[in-house]
Amino acid sequence: MVDAPSWPSIPAMALQSAERFGADEAVVDGDVRLSFAELGVLVRASAKAMIAAGVTHGDRVAIWAPNSIGWVVAALGLQAAGAGLVPVNTRWKGEEAADILERSGARLLCTVTGFLDVDPVGMLARSQSELPSLGGIVVLSGPTPPGCTSWDEFLAAGADVGDDIVDERLAALGPDDICDILFTSGTTGRPKGVVMRHGQTLRFSESWCDFAGLRRGDRYLVVNPFFHMFGYKAGWMPCLIRGATLLPVPVFDVGRVLGIVERERVTVFPGAPTVYQSLLDHPRRAEHDISSLRVAVTGAADIPVELIRRMHTELPFEAIMTGYGLTEAATCTGSRPGDSFETIAGTAGRAMEGLEVRVVTADGTDGAAGTGGTGSAGSCATGSDGSEAPRGEAGEIVVRGYSVMTEYFDDTEATAAAIDA
Prior knowledge:
Structural class: alpha/beta
Strand content: 15-25%
Distance between the termini: 25 Å
Helix content: 25-40%
Shape: globular
Radius of gyration: 21 Å
Strand order of the largest sheet: 4-3-5-6-7
């Protein structure tokens, strides 16, 4: 069980990993290969550029881009400068993205051009005049439109910022500082900004490493988008924590993924059930050596028992797990090693260490999903009146523990409705 984070902040963890894992391969992104030491150099350069651009403690900086090493370097740099990360869903259109940028008060936007014929800068053009806080747009990759700054130009502008300034910013960051504001999908209303802190995020990511069995030298293919909690806090962050190699995938294409798995000897490959179904059904799967695959983590949709069975018998995974989570509290439940196919497919597992999960029914009683650390699939929580509530009733899932969000950003009414005493 992870009792407290091992570092004061996410960028402090990343820079310590640069020292801990040194020459180990940290990232493979297309033709780009970086060691942990080289990644650390880029993170410092990114932090200097953010500081030179005027980013300071408490600011927000947004990233609207697909999975890439640039995404990670920009995120760690802005956090090292003291800002909170605001990821923007790559599926959103200009008005949706502008709404997030406006409400978060983002000082800078890091984006890409020329990706899948999507033009984020053009989509924002009509809304930019309505974004008084936005001081500039930095293009991580692709052609740089007029009025924007290329990533190379951005980094060059920070060359005169000293390492001592970066160290001062890092020293000022603590576990209770805001690390990010992830906006919800908006399926039940207008997206809300979920405020998380460095300490709870690090503690969760460390715990997820234990849950998934991630270890130094693993090669982790991340198809889950970085703008989502899974691709970020259960994706590239655990790689830095454990010394695993990150392989970011911007768009899932099963044929290309099979090639990467074979060529790069991928060991860890989480994804939605459809990802594994696509692997199983691909007509040329047998032509690829995917014997390196060891860990699968799925969820976010109904999982047929037969899919879990086929993953176990037709794919080389040694460990197959499922879980349930939400932006407001990260991964809350998960299956455990040794669980049956039926348990993996038909449940969301048991509460994660340090968390309590209940199902609250209409009359105020609750049916338990268990308490983290009990070691019992049948453990029960009790209602506020002290009596055990009946199981099997539909209701609302409630969670208590270290990973629950601090608040909805700038929305006291929604916060009060979501978090009780």
